[in-house]
Description:
Layout: E1 2-7, E2 13-15, E3 21-23, E4 34-39, E5 43-52, E6 73-82, E7 85-89, E8 91-96, E9 127-139, E10 145-151, E11 159-165, H1 170-178, H2 182-192, H3 196-205, H4 211-219, H5 223-233, H6 241-253, H7 257-270, H8 275-284, H9 288-301, H10 306-319, H11 322-336, H12 342-352, H13 366-375, H14 380-396, H15 400-408, H16 418-434, H17 438-456, H18 463-479
Antiparallel strand pairs: 1-4, 2-3, 3-11, 4-10, 5-9, 5-11, 6-7, 6-10, 8-9
Amino acid sequence: xxxxxxxxxxxxxxxxxxxxxxxxxxxxxxxxxxxxxxxxxxxxxxxxxxxxxxxxxxxxxxxxxxxxxxxxxxxxxxxxxxxxxxxxxxxxxxxxxxxxxxxxxxxxxxxxxxxxxxxxxxxxxxxxxxxxxxxxxxxxxxxxxxxxxxxxxxxxxxxxxxxxxxxxxxxxxxxxxxxxxxxxxxxxxxxxxxxxxxxxxxxxxxxxxxxxxxxxxxxxxxxxxxxxxxxxxxxxxxxxxxxxxxxxxxxxxxxxxxxxxxxxxxxxxxxxxxxxxxxxxxxxxxxxxxxxxxxxxxxxxxxxxxxxxxxxxxxxxxxxxxxxxxxxxxxxxxxxxxxxxxxxxxxxxxxxxxxxxxxxxxxxxxxxxxxxxxxxxxxxxxxxxxxxxxxxxxxxxxxxxxxxxxxxxxxxxxxxxxxxxxxxxxxxxxxxxxxxxxxxxxxxxxxxxxxxxxxxxxxxxxxxxxxxxxxxxxxxxxxxxxxx
Length: 484
């Protein structure tokens, strides 16, 4: 599209030869949104593609204006015309080539200016995001499209490029291009091109290529159509673990969890190493007992796998398997009792604090974590995690006032991550309740519920996501008198 107009206050956006826009770093402190008017010859717009680009003139090569090179895109808005008047076009979904683990691209369309998408961990690189409209917008030369990009203060984009797509099935086209098997890729391509006769001939000579259609159905979330194809290909004697895993994922999407588990069990019988994938899959689905079964299979084969010990403990706790939780927790404590890493210390302490009936263990590296916090030598992100862990530890020890003080040390931090914030709010809700501060407790509990909903929408399967869920349940049981 042609850029017809740029509105960005005093901030100067300079068009480049590649149709991108470059911002002078002297405007790094801007709080002004970028408003870009795009002209096309006329078409239906299904989505907006935003490419964020590195540039040597930007701090740390960008793509943002912050000194780190990062940006915080808090909101994307699209305006089109209807009956001669501009109106906002709702964005129904978004996808990105990369997002920092606690800042998914969906945060740029949640209508909350306090959340954002960013690319910490992959700065100085190109990334892209696509924002799909709820219904296609009609544009014409006299009715251009307007895109607004809103940022957190001082964290605007430094170089970026906008494009539009008029193909609602462009996701399917991209999927077809990425299918590795050439016959399945050809099947998908012929299907998209509506080359029915050519497709029929291909399937006569290469019947398994029909899985290319299944891939397309999966990309379009047409689970029943995809399942029908997999059921035609998979027979009682199938030894292809990849087919079984693919069908298991489809069963899970349809809510047929017993059938999904059966396929995972057969796949892990063929290839035992797949048990870890099954554990992660059922953890994501919040099928705690199924996840526990596969997790214990993995730990039986690799008992010293530290990361899995830390991931498995909260899953076992959520599954209600107290004996297995205690065993895995104690293994983790033994594994980390001599650690000098505050990061590892916090993680093993956190999984030990899950039960309300926490009993101190002299092997826990509490001193390592507390010393690092007191010396103030930790990064802001880990400092938040550490202080919320210390607040929970203090709460478990019955010192509710000090627990509140530790939790409130995070209030002044604008960049506290959702996981730490949820843990902080859980401690505040429970500690205020214990002290009889009813209003403060209810307020913190209400905010906690909002943070939990955000976390559940994120692609996280490790203990970071599970600990707040467990604490939320405990807070419910205390404040709302609901059973754990």
